Amino acid sequence: QVQLVESGGGSVQAGGSLKLSCAVSGDIFRGCRMGWFRQAPGKERELVAKIGSLRTADIDYTDSVKGRFTISRDSAEKFLYLQMNSLKSEDTAVYYCAACRDTTYDFGYKYWGQGTQVTVSS
Predict the structure, then answer these.
(1) For 116, which of 6, 16, 22, 93 could close a Cys bridge (C-beta 3.0–4.6 Å)?
(2) Mapping DSSP to helix (H, G, I), strand (E, B) and coil, where does residue 75 land?
């Protein structure tokens, strides 16, 4: 049984920082691609950042967070992180951790966390 549990969300003033963590439990094929999504009220869920396996380590970000957010994963592939700096009010959303790229699933990932709220006040 695979489980993803996010933590680290909260409220912060614009310009501040937060670090989200995603703990991975259960058997996930080593090499699964992972990512962070977010969904703001009334908007569609969007991919914020994605990272490949430790072998490839290819990383990509949506344009609106480039230079401000950093995605990373630990060497045991049991934690996924999202360091968020210079936060803006438009970053306010529920952030979701996702694992194992698979286009047969919604938004292209098989496993999802429950989400953690990030609120940025201006």
Answers:
(1) 6
(2) coil
- Tens-digit pLDDT profile for residues 81-115: 999 999 999 999 999 999 998 999 989 999 999 99
CA pair distance 122, 117, nearest whole angstrom: 16
Please tell me the total number of residues recorded for the chain in this structure. 122
Q: Which two tokens stand for residue 59?
A: 């990383």
Exposed / middle / buried, residue 13 (Cβ in 10 Å: 0-12, 13-18, 19+): exposed
Residue 56: pLDDT band with limits 50, 70, 90: low
Q: What is the largest CA-CA distance in the chain?
A: 41
Residue indicated by tokens 């709220």: 117
Q: If you count DSSP H runs as helices and E runs as strands, how many of each does the chain have, helices first?
A: 0, 11
Q: How far is CA 120 from CA 7, 9, 33, 117, in A?
A: 16, 10, 28, 10
Could you give the CA distance from residue 74 to residue 64 in angstroms, rounded to a whole number? 25
